[in-house]
Amino acid sequence: MKNIHEKVCLCALNRIFGFEPKIALALISHFGNASSVFALKPEDIDGILGPHSKYRGCISQKALDESYAELERLRGQGIGFVGWNEPGYPALLKECEDAPSGLYIRSAHPSEIPWNSRKAIAVVGTRDLSPYGREWCERLVGKLADVPEKDRPVIVSGLALGTDACAHRTALDVGLPTIAVMATGPDEVYPGRNMNMAGLMARTPGSALVTDYPPGTAPLAVHFLRRNRIIAGMSEATVLIESKIKGGGMMTARLADSYNREVFALPGRVDDLRSQGCNSLIRSKTASPITSVEDFLKDIGLTAAKGARRESDKDRLERLYKGSIPDDRISLMTRILLEIRSERGITIDELAGKLDMEYHRTAQLTGMLETDGVITTDLLQRCFINFR
Fold first, then answer.
1. What is the 3-state secondary structure (H, E, C) of 224-237?
2. Which residues contact residue 202 at a Cβ distance below 8 angstroms, ignoring those fewer than 6 apart?
3. Which helix (H) or strand (E) holds 154?
4. Which letter does DSSP use for residue 54 in this model?
5. Kind of pairing between the strands at 154-157 and 120-124
6. End-to-end alpha carbon distance in the chain
7. What percent of the chain has pLDDT over 90?
8. With 50 as the cut, is the pLDDT of residue 56 above it?
9. Strands 383-385 and 375-377, bridge-based pairing
């Protein structure tokens, strides 16, 4: 019962001091636990916070009753809560002076999130992800699945469109646990386009949706900025895939640097707005450049397992089409992928010329590959491989 009361007190402090978590942590640290804070007399609280504090009267029995009712309601929805001084709280996040008093957790098994037993890698960046950024996001996250089972990391991101969604989806595809830090309450998913993926994360063992915002919190702009501290705080390393000079990904990378965590950035073309943020972090030596997948693994202290091998294009196509289409067509599709790999963004018309095939035949095969998720094409008919 004592532990339950402490959890309720931590939840209440999180609700009260959500936008100023340093106050809550100072109170917990000074008095030893959250329960002791709520055991104080009103006049003692006024003496600490000041008689004219905007929080006057907030630390009350009413706040505890509301938090208790909230936690009971959420438990019925499969949503848990872990407090700052409880064993299941992310150890790295606890080191940050602006850590939240607690986190709401939506997961298949809230008590089994591996953030204290596995290395956590944050992968963040622009919502306007380019094919180049998508390719490298999928390459990096995909390669992390090749390390020995005991060393496989957790992929952390923010559930936004673009880079975040790519990182989460790739992690799910290759069997890595992934954690989404949300800018809403635990009862809402934003954006709605990621609803299905969020549901899959919540059902996948080891993966989770987490937030420090209470139920009913709307996705306001300020909430996205504040949640970035949690992404950076719970991760040993942060990877910035693409970003303009200003953006949430840049903020997360700078926060990670302020927490004395490793920061990596994917270099890009100097005239590409989506790479200006990454290039500036590299130039200022805030971030280390990602020059190869293998070097990145070494830099974060991981090594691919011996004998680990990513599925080849031929293997992938045979898995998809063997027995359903002729072998010679699979061979043609393999050649198409080879050309796309050698020249990212090659058009269907250019493919036809390089392969000496009729345009309509090339368009038919690339259309089949796109339908089955192997490649994507843009409005200019440029082709890009999905690295899954």
1. HHHHHHHHHHCCCE
2. 78, 106, 107, 108, 208, 209
3. strand 154-157
4. T
5. parallel
6. 47
7. 69
8. yes
9. antiparallel
Q: Give the span between the Cα atoms of 345 and 135, in whole angstroms.
A: 11
Which of 177, 213, 209 lies closest to 194, judged by CA?
Answer: 209
Question: In order of start, what are the domains of the chain with their CATH numbers?
Answer: 2-106 (no CATH), 114-299 (3.40.50.450), 313-385 (1.10.10.10)
The first and second tokens of residue 226, run together, are 């504040």
Owner of token pair 């706040």: 63
Q: Give the number of C-alpha atoms closer than 13 A to the C-alpha of residue 181, restricted to the C-beta side.
A: 31
Token pair of 170, please? 């790739």
Under DSSP, the state recorded for 307 is T
Q: Say how far apart CA 160 and CA 312 lie, in whole Å.
A: 30
Residues 321-378: tens digit of each pLDDT: 888 888 889 989 988 988 888 787 899 999 999 999 999 999 999 999 998 888 888 8
CA 195/CA 323 separation, integer angstroms? 35
Q: CA distances (Å), 17 to each of 52, 54, 97, 262, 303, in order?
A: 16, 11, 14, 29, 42
